[in-house]
Amino acid sequence: MEFIEIKNCYKIYKNGVTALADGNLTISKGEFVFLIGPTASGKSTLLKLLYREEKPNKGEVHVGNIDISKLRNSKVYKLRRKIGIVFQDFKLLPKLTVYENVAYPLESYGMRSKEIKDFVLKALERVGLKDKYRSYPHELSGGEQQRVCIARAIVNEPKLIICDEPTGNLDPDTSKEIMDVLVKINEELGTTIVMATHDKEIVNRLKKRVITIKNGVIVSDKKKGKYDNEADKNI
Ligand code: ADP
Ligand code: MG
Taking the complete model, does pTM exceed 0.85, yes or no? Predict the structure, then answer.
């Protein structure tokens, strides 16, 4: 079985919207995958199925050999420990320092503070922000804040990172910086990355696998894909 397998999956929200219709997808360990498509096509929903923010109405969602669609709510925290998540809006805690924001996920594990320090500094070094560990989020640029989020997502060394439009609020140069960090993590640590994006420049420059979703239907899946302009049109 592959690292991620979505099989015959349907997500129909209570209001009747079908956000995923008969979705089928496999992703191997270590892949870097872009998920593209117009607004409201179902990108975030597909990602939510992978970190069990949503359950499918039908079908299976396997992540690392477990069918997470059948996972009990009381076990979801165990899955989340294995996944790093990065959003468009940074979701940093404003009253905590950079160090404390990154340490936050580890504190619930009952880890000793010496060990936490090693993990946090390693993660901050990887995103190039070790010297800002005492700063507060409001003292950082948008790109730096997003790098803190990436550090927080990788601090427990997950096998999977899910990014939902991580460059959506950033200018092109800063977006490029963020992508360089993500590509480096993928290449050096072998972390699987699944990223929803609207950013044509990024997708075309990096030539990774590109999956296109429209109206809840996966319409194409290309190995070294490009952002084709048709991808933005809902049919
Ligand atoms: P995207 O990320 O591509 O913009 P989404 O996955 O957020 O798309 O949304 C897909 C469709 O599902 C949209 O029509 C959206 O309005 C609908 N949708 C998303 N979340 C919910 C929800 N919690 N309840 C009802 N409808 C939703
Ligand atoms: Mg979205």
Answer: yes
